[in-house]
Structure formats: structure tokens, C-alpha cells
Amino acid sequence: AQFYVSKITLEGEGEANIYGTENYNVVKAGTADYDGGQLRAGKITELKFNVGVDAEANHEDPSALPASNPLSSEHPDFAHWSWDAGYQFLRLEGSVDFDGDGTEDEILEYHIGGDPNLRQVILDNLDISVDQATEVVTITVDYAKFFENIDLTTESITHTGDFPAIAQKVIANIVAAYSL
Predict the structure, then answer these.
(1) For residues 9 and 121, what is the distance between their CA atoms, to the nearest angstrom?
(2) d(CA 124, CA 44)
(3) Rounded distance, CA 94 to CA 46, Å?
(4) How far apart are CA 158 and CA 126, in angstroms?
(5) What is the dihedral of CA 109, 112, 167, 139, to 10 degrees?
(6) Which pTM was predicted?
(7) d(CA 85, CA 161)
(8) Given pLDDT bands bounded at 50, 70 and 90, which one contains residue 38?
(9) Is the Cβ–Cβ distance between 143 and 50 less than 8 Å?
(10) Which residues, 6 or more positions from 58, have their beta carbon under 8 angstroms from its beta carbon?
(11) CA-CA distance, 106 to 98, in Å (whole number)?
(12) pLDDT digit string (tens) for 42-94?
């Protein structure tokens, strides 16, 4: 599993209009910590971020970016289709054991992308005080939620455009997968 996170914004009270970034991160299984940037002291009341890449960046030339940029064609987690289709915002890959016998029966491959499929996650009603040099905000991803209302026996593959109905089911589940 991996997905792009972009446009992270933390909002708050008083001096805590804390943080906004244009940065992109590739979130993937096995990596737990990501640098969110600099915060000012205050109270965080809302955290927003996109799952995906905004339309402008989605259609830039990835070969023109430095290798350290997650959108670069030289980045090891690079997930791009082409200039017109852009990035794969969300990739879920694996296998499915339909009958529970321990043998994989089918591959699972969800590659979600396309400008209309960018999703903004808003986690609000927060009460997080930032008053020290380092503050950790933990966002939980419940990967099982990506599969809600999906029949894996018949809906195990989509590359967004080839099986758009399946893609729309995955896309509909994106926002609910995240919590603090």
C-alpha cells in the first residue's frame, strides 16, 4: 500500500494558524514517521490534507524534478502513468484468498488516480496543544476501510479507467480510512 499526501494544513486558535505546506509525501506500509515541517506554538483545531496530487503538479514533467522529490521520476516510490493521466494517488496491491485455504486465488490491484479523484481529508474538532520543540501528531490509516462495500471475489482489480465502478467504490472509502 502506498499513497501520496499533499497540501498538509494545520489550523488553530490564536497564534496557531500554524502550518501549511505544498510538500508531497509518499506514505507506504513499513514507514511510520514523516516530517510535517515547522509548527508555531498554539492549539491545533483542524488538520487537512489531500490524498493525491493536485491538478497542477499532476501534469508537470516529473523528469524535471530533483531525485529527492517524491514526484520525481527518479524517486524510488514514483507512481506515474503518463503526462495526461498523471500520478497514481493510491496503490493497493496484494492477493486475495477467497476460500480461506491459505492459497492465493486472485491478485488485488487498485491503482487510483486522475484529477477528479483527489480527496481532501479533514480531521476537525481537535484539541492538540503545541508547546514544545517537537510535537508528534499521529494519523491512523485503517486499510480495511478502503475495502468496505467491495466484493473482492469480483472486484479485485482497477486502474481507475479500466474498471471505473470499482475505482469509485475505493475512492468513496478514502476519507473514512483516516483518523487521529
Answers:
(1) 10
(2) 9
(3) 33
(4) 35
(5) 90
(6) 0.87
(7) 10
(8) low
(9) no
(10) 52, 86, 87, 115
(11) 8
(12) 788 888 899 999 999 999 999 999 888 899 999 888 888 886 789 999 999 99
CB neighbours of residue 96 within 10 Å: 13
Pair type for strands 106-113 and 157-158:
parallel
CA dist., res. 18 & res. 94, Å (int): 38
Cα separation, 53 vs 7, whole angstroms: 9
Which three three-digit cell numbers place residue 150?
467491495
Confidence of residue 133 (pLDDT cuts 50, 70, 90): low
Spell out the residues 6+ positions from residue 32 whose beta carbon is closer than 8 angstroms to its own: none
For the record, the C-alpha cell of 145 comes out as 476501510
Could you tell me the sign of the dihedral formed by the alpha carbons of 124, 125, 128, 129, in that order? positive
